[in-house]
Specification:
343 residues; 13 helices; endoplasmic reticulum
Length: 343
């Protein structure tokens, strides 16, 4: 079911609505919480913070696997040493790189500008899928990519607190994540062809298998970058409770994604992410007083239009608008007839 496919009257829309609201809440809270910890406390070591999140996720998924049915999907997956090395380890390393870069970027850029740069995500994912020969390139996709790229260029040009290094970290995060997503698609499709069935992993099961690899990879990165100079007194100064809550919020985001995936589609999540990101930008302005130029707003608005066109396609947008217009006109005509009948 998508936003464009309304459920039948007897079906309740509340589970989907609550799932979407839960995802929006945990997603935005995770981003704002991470930004606050890195910028407003003494805990400014973003790689160590990411490593802590992954250690928490490893322990939490192990606990859930033994006490709930949320991870029963892992029982349908044949996970041997070869499969783990071939599928999980590369994905885990890419995921680790994405998390490290996405947390480091908070040291250089404000939340609103980061969200604007994230509109490049579909472009990078599509280019990566072309490079992996997963999706054939088309002229329409290329032109849409140009529109989004030029729009993001306007947003970058209008940024008041610009940092070239911060932009590079954000782009690196998107590149890591795009390769992770495409690799999952390639490996699972090849597994499907080889096994005749396919091994499908939901986000929580993927986290169950990949979190230990990510935690280990992050620990190695932290050991050679931040850990040697890390002052352990910062933990008590920041607050053990704050760090536990921060890790728990990040983990709840993964759980909310897992729950929502079973109730809706990727298209719905793409559509909902638009107002979600706008809300996050507003929160950034309210909480930190972030300055946003008119040029940035124009660039981001054009990027969102390009993103919606990329996700839906012209025919779907045209059909949806036509259906909405028909409903609106039909409702007005029905009210007029009822009024005439009353007279």
């Amino acid at each position: 079911m998508t936003i464009l496919d309304l459920p039948p009257k007897e079906a309740s829309v509340w589970p989907v609505t609550l799932g979407i609201l839960s995802w929006v809440f945990w997603s935005n809270l995770t981003i704002l919480f991470n930004k606050w910890v890195i910028e407003s406390t003494e805990f400014r070591t973003s790689i160590i913070l990411t490593t802590w999140h992954l250690i928490f996720a490893t322990l939490a998924t192990q606990l859930l696997a033994r006490t709930t049915t949320l991870l029963d999907g892992r029982k349908t997956i044949r996970m041997d040493a070869r499969t783990y090395l071939r599928m999980i380890v590369p994905i885990g390393i890419l995921y680790s790189g994405s998390l490290v870069c996405s947390n480091i970027v908070y040291l250089y850029l404000n939340v609103s500008f980061i969200q604007m740069l994230k509109a490049c995500g579909p472009i990078i994912t599509l280019l990566t899928s072309w490079a992996w020969h997963v999706t054939p390139p088309t002229l329409e996709s290329f032109l849409n990519i140009l529109l989004i790229a030029l729009s993001i260029g306007l947003a970058v040009a209008g940024e008041v607190q610009f940092s070239g290094l911060g932009v590079l970290y954000q782009l690196a995060s998107l590149i890591f994540d795009a390769n992770r997503l495409v690799m999952i698609q390639v490996l699972l499709s090849s597994s499907s062809a080889h096994d005749g069935g396919g091994q499908k992993m939901d986000p929580l099961v993927t986290l169950y298998y990949s979190a230990p690899v990510c935690a280990f990879t992050n620990f190695l990165i932290a050991f050679y970058t931040e850990l040697r100079a890390f002052r352990w007194g910062v933990v008590s100064e920041t607050g053990v409770g704050v760090l536990l809550a921060n890790a728990a919020v990040g983990f709840m985001l993964n759980v909310s994604i897992f729950v929502l995936i079973g109730k809706t589609s990727g298209l719905t999540m793409t559509l909902v992410s638009v107002p979600k990101n706008i809300l996050l930008i507003v929160c950034s302005v309210v909480i930190w007083g972030t300055e946003i130029s008119v040029l940035q707003m124009v660039g981001y608005a054009l990027a969102l239009v390009g993103l919606l066109y990329y996700s839906l396609g012209w025919e779907t947008i045209k059909g949806s608008c036509g259906a909405g217009y028909t409903r609106l006109v039909g409702g007005v005509e029905r009210e007029e007839k009822e009024a005439e009948g009353g007279v």
